[in-house]
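Consider the tokenized backbone below.
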């Protein structure tokens, strides 16, 4: 099986695949640490401090007990280059001999947060419900990017 994989996937393709796996695992870890960091920063503070940072929520739900749940869905669309990795001469004149940009596509980056407050508007808990890679370099968490 290993010989089959080696014959089918070129060496650079395996390297790119390994890098993508590391990035995906980093994103999963980043979401958990982002939630912890958000709670460490905002828990016990008025909801207004978070609203000043990230804007008004899309939804506010009040429970019978007077607690509030605030929900944010922050989206940003970016253009991502589509590349071709190959052996041999450049496909596109003037490009690298093994990696060519052959187009671009859009990618939606999302941060979905749910924040619980007590009846006085003091933050009790922040939950990161959905988190993708950020739009800026080296941001493995869109929510971390929004909250920093």
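A designed sequence for it:
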């Amino acid at each position: 099986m290993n010989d089959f994989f080696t014959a089918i996937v070129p060496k650079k393709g395996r390297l790119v695949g390994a890098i993508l796996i590391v990035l995906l695992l980093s994103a999963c870890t980043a979401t958990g640490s982002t939630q912890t960091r958000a709670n460490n920063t905002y828990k016990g503070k008025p909801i207004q401090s978070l609203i000043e940072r990230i804007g008004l929520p899309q939804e506010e739900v009040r429970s019978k007990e007077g607690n509030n749940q605030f929900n944010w869905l922050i989206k940003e669309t970016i253009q991502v280059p589509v590349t071709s990795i190959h052996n041999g001469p450049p496909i596109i004149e003037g490009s690298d001999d093994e990696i060519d940009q052959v187009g671009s596509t859009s990618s939606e980056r999302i941060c979905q947060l749910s924040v619980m407050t007590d009846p006085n508007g003091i933050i009790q808990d922040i939950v990161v419900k959905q988190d993708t890679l950020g739009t800026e370099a080296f941001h493995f968490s869109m929510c971390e990017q929004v909250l920093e």
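Helices lie at 2-8, 11-42, 47-54, 142-147.
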